[in-house]
Amino acid sequence: MLLALLMLVSSLVMMPSPPAQAATLGVGYGNESLWLGSFSSHGRQAYCMDLYALPPYGTTQHPELRTTLDSLSETDLARLNYVMGRWGESQDPNVTSAVQMYVWDVADHAHYIAEGGDAHFLTRVPAGVQGTVLANLNAMRDAAAANAVPNPSVSMSISMDDQYNGALSISANPATAIGTVTLTNAQFANGASTATLGAGTHQIVGTPAEGAPEYQISAAMSAPALGYGAGVDLFYTPGEQRILAAASFEPLKATASSPTIPLDFQPEITTQVSSKFVQAGDKFVDGLTVRVTKHSWIRLNGSPIPVEAVGTLYGPFDEQPAEANAPPTGAPIAGTETMTLTGPGSFKSPGTIVAPESGFYTWVWSIDKEAQGQYAKYLTDSFSDRFGIVAETSITPFQPEAVSKADQRLTVPGGKVTDTITVSSTNGVWLKHNGAHIPIVFEGVAYQVDGTLPPVQAGAVPESARPVTSATITATGPGTYTSSEVVLPNGGFVTWVWKVSKSSQPEWVRPYIASDWADDFGINIETHSVRWPIEIVSEIKEYNVHLKGGRAFDRIEMSGFPENHGEFEGDGYWQADVDEVVHTVYGPFKTEEELADDLDLEDAPVLTSIITPARNGTYHLGYTDGDAIKPTKPGYYVVVSSFAGDDRVQPITTSPGDIRERFFVPDDRQPVTVITQAQPEARVGEPFEDLALVQGTDIPEDAYLVFRAYGPHDPEAEPVCEVPFFTSERVPVTQAGVYRSGSTSVTEPGHVYWVETLYDGDDEVIAEGRCGAPGETTVVTGQPEEVSVVTNAVPEVLLGDPAHDVATVSGKVPDGATLGFEAYRQDGSEAVCTDAELVFTSETIKVDGPGDYRSSDVVFDRVGTYYWIETLYGPEGDVLHRGQCGAPNETTKVVTELEAPPELAVTGGADLLQPILIGAGLAGAAAAVALFFGRRLAQRREEEEAAGEDWNDGEDGDAIDELMKM
Description:
9 helices
């Protein structure tokens, strides 16, 4: 085995040169006897150099590089090498035949010329290509003369313009030489590190290693030597033609390097806030993205160098600040944070800055080169990003709130009120969007306070509070805003509660609001007192009062006061109750015409004044020595009741024109007079009428009244009474008393003027009214658009007697409307109307238009107070109107005995008949009785007109009929 191994090694070491091989015809024209072209040997195309030697068909040896050959000069060798290197391997016989002619001409010139030169050898190619071959030959001679060099070479140098950009310069001999250049730590302009180049200057870009603090660029070139240099490859065939091929010179080599280049890098920062909205008190956190825009993050000893970055948070601003290269002068600063960066990537700021108040806050991050100490040289420059970039801005929402003030501290049921709110942001600036303040919707609800006392301030709305109305205000920035007018229908205290709900805002607004907000319930300045309207109904017991020793007596009924009126002592904002009503007896007046609604009470004569508590109930005046009403002079007197009003109850002064509150102190027999009182108001289509009070002691036999109505006329025009549209029947007048015209109606609004005429039995006029006289005009108005309901219940009944309620409906009532009545028994001082108190529900009444509608009768089985509530329903059963529990005129008291003043021995009242017969005769008594009942009738009419009822209907009509019978 050892011997075999030694033999194998020996055979490898002593392996002979490649074996010789015979040359064969290559590419050209002719045949083995006469050939012009290349020979193929050892895988290459070679050309004969010895014109007269035998063709190389023998054993041709392996080629040998020769830089000297016979007597050929370096130039000859260089030119031969150039031509064979460029065209020697061609497969075109027109080219190879030209190469062969060029080789013979140079290598064996004398023999070539002796044979006849180009012209002779061209005969060996077909006649059709001889011109092509000759042209190729001439081109080869020119190219060889111009480009063939004996000593080819290449060299390179590197120059740098800066740390990365430079140039590679290549010199070559010949200038046409090209080669492969490979760069280290650099690239060519096309991004490649290897390129095939020739002589010239080529731009390069350095590509240092990642994190390198410095680097060096190097280049290496390898240019193929084919066709360059003085030499040829010689193929020797013993005893036969030598053949030549291009020299097999080694490639041309060159290298170059730059000096060592120190490096720096440029870190830059972009940020995106972690949260666009940051609540006050929360932390601002910024997300940083660090990148390197020049080189890469430099590392020393394997570790990245540290770079300190400073973030400055500017704000608050009331809107998104405009983007700029730098913050504006004086821009507020919320705080700064410092971070040490050790490379590109994503980072979070420390979050040490807390949002102090509402506003826009924007980050600016910077890197100060000079602040980096020993590492400053590795930074190209300082860096600072732009101010006001939206992605680098956080928003701290603002808290809109309002302070409210009721514009009408005191109002009345049905009164229109407004509320004014002053709005602001309580945690900083009111934010803006696109240059305008962000609009905020404030919602206000007016709550009816339970009970009759002012509300107690509380953080939440009590369950007992009832929403009455609501309003919305869109605030377009801090300032003062007033709500639209709203109507408060019922007496009591109504307080506003305002709120801001994020869910009620446009969706884009919600993120800008810190949280929902609502103010307290029952704040005094946010509260209206809807002062209770009170009613004072009074009636003098007698119309005629004796001058000597006579006394007048008055019955006063007051209602509408809160049950606890007189007990409220005030709370510092709301004043205490005024607990007195003053009843003043004015007179005497010479004529009754002076007792009109517009009587100036300041200058009117006063007989006496009586004070009663300002509380609900019936008060009898004149029955004690302390409140005696004793006229001392003849004439007309009237009782006027006045309540000054307070923070819970409206003021009221009864009219001096109220005929129910008049009494007369006669001095002698009275002439026959007629006083009329037309129904003051009516609506189109509703009935109305006139009343006449006939007075005097000498009414002739067979006297009668006729009432005439004219119009309706334009209220602005002078009264005209020419052709009546209504003339009453003859109304017999047998004694002093009240007489009715009968009702009529009109189809359009305007003023209707009444004229009454009293005739004797011979149709002579005793007394006649004047067209347009005071109290003789009925104002007819159109039906209102809105439906309204006014009610008047029977105020007092004996236990076991029936009670009822009457509702006066006005306005445009829809077809199919119905009306229902309910009664509720009361067990305490507060008005309560729930199912537990319900004791009566009437049948449903069809409502076919404006007018009076009476409930069915009900007999209550217990004494006490009962509150009525009426409900008007639409055709679909929807509630158009519902009364208020405990409303004025909606109370019935069930008693065991009706209140009545004690009878006096001598009066001018209902029991005057016998004393007057004794003192003045039957006629005077009849007149007194008529006057008394006339006053009672007028009083009844005014009461019911004040309540909005038709005083001619129902029980009142029955009472008048009874009076007329008397």
